[in-house]
Amino acid sequence: MGKKLNFLALSLLTLLALLGGAFTETGAEWQEVAKANPGDVAWMIVASAFVLLMTPGLAFFYGGMVDRKNVISTMLQSFAALGVISVVWVVVGFSLCFGDSLGGIIGNPLTFLNFRNVGAAPHPEIGAGLPFLLFALFQLKFAIITPALFTGSMAGRIRFRSYILFMVLFTLFIYAPLAHMTWHPDGLLMNLGVLDFAGGTVVHMSAGFAALAGAVHLGPRNIDRLEHANIPFIILGTGLLWFGWFGFNAGSALGANDDAVLALANTHFASAAGMITWMFYERYKGRKMNAVGACIGAIVGLVAITPAAGFVTVQESVAIGFIAALVSNWAIARQSKSGLDDTLDVFPSHGVGGMVGMVLTGVFAADVGLTSGETDTFLWHLVALVGVAIFTFGASLLLFKLVDKAIPLRVTGWQETLGLDESQHGETVD
Q1: Distance between alpha carbon 423 and the CA centroid of its chain, in Å?
Q2: What is the pLDDT of residues 321-358, one digit of tens each?
Q3: CB neighbour list of residue 425: distance below 8 Å, 6 or more residues apart
Q4: What is the pLDDT of residues 249-282, one digit of tens each?
Q5: Between the CA atoms of 276, 342, 55 and 171, what dihedral angle is there, to the nearest 10 degrees?
Q6: CA 284 → CA 18, 72, 324, distances in Å?
Q7: Is the residue at 423 inside a domain?
Q8: pLDDT score of 186
Q9: How many domains does the chain have?
Q10: Is residue 420 part of a domain?
């Protein structure tokens, strides 16, 4: 039954995408392309490619962290998002995120159904004068990496077919409303003054709390200790993520402009601060400075600066990386004692890192933060943080339960012992 459901769902999405051209109006949308700034277009094409590279980078990062018998399955979970979410995005995902606002909560699914009217002409209100198709492609890369992020919490015990179904439902019912509320001109959070430059709530908090819900629902693995399969993979993945994050954050300026330069600089220095803080804090606690810790610290710095990248100074970005590394390090230590099996510490890295970033954005944001003598933005960030946490965790837990009824989420004990590489995919790293 599960195989048939997956096949029919994906076949239907692909068919709708293929038929989409029949409903797309052509001609008028291509007439205004000359109005887009060529420099902005060039940068956003590059930024889109940068962000796409982050998903393979994440695959290496997670693949190196898991045990040897789950490397391929873990990496494939990231790569699968490239295909599945791309088709969902064309059919209805982009419209749910950026279609005509329905109460500030979600977009009208019919506005850009099958990419109708998504062409070279800029949208009058969305996309900062870029070709609308380019804006849609850039935003797609965010939608791809978000479900890939939460796979790390369930590594080694989730059925691949179930994950695909959950990934689709998560994108439609959790990611899309958050993206619309945060980044659409008529979105609820946007109009309340909540600042999220590149995805602190939309990407990292949503992935972090989905990871927490997945760990709660699936329960612990049948092993006592995780042995990292390939530490050089972790370092390679971190480098690719750090590189791609320049497109993630600086690209969110939607042009080759001063905001992009500031976001790029802040991205780099926050990550650097997170990395060295993590290493020296480990030494302070009497532990060795190691490669895995350095990589986690760098990622936490990147996560925390994401919502603030275009709103703070370089000096403040260093402070954000420093604070986030300490808080996430503490959160990982607490989680390890809790009995909760979040395999790769996705929640304390991305969920907690995203929350720290959102709070500190409210503190440091130029002209509207606490350091500027204003309180409204900070208070709305706290409200948004609580609301997004409750919504994302609750909705994710509900979706996990629904998917579990359709296709069992957890592999059998024998499959888990054998490893997901062989039991799910018939492949091994040997």
Answers
A1: 28
A2: 999 999 999 999 999 898 899 999 999 999 999 999 99
A3: 72, 73, 76, 160
A4: 999 999 999 999 999 999 999 999 999 999 999 9
A5: -130
A6: 57, 36, 17
A7: no
A8: 98
A9: 1
A10: no
Whole-number Å distance between alpha carbons of 6 and 87: 14
By the 10 Å C-beta count (0-12 exposed, 13-18 middle, 19+ buried), 315 is classed as: exposed
* Predicted local distance difference test score (pLDDT) of residue 419: 94
pLDDT of residue 25 exceeding 50, the answer is no
Please give the structure tokens belonging to residue 227.
């042995």
pTM score > 0.90 for this model? yes
Q: Look up residue 202 and give its two tokens.
A: 């939309």
Amino acid code (one letter) for 285: K
Nearest to 119 by CA among 108, 111, 130: 130
User: Considering only CA atoms, which of 70, 82, 49, 75 is closest in space to residue 60?
Assistant: 75
d(CA 268, CA 265): 5
Q: What is the CATH number of the domain that holds 312?
A: 1.10.3430.10
In a domain, 429, yes or no: no
Which residue has 């993520």 as its token pair? 241
Expressed as residue numbers, the domain containing 143 is 2-415
22: in domain? yes
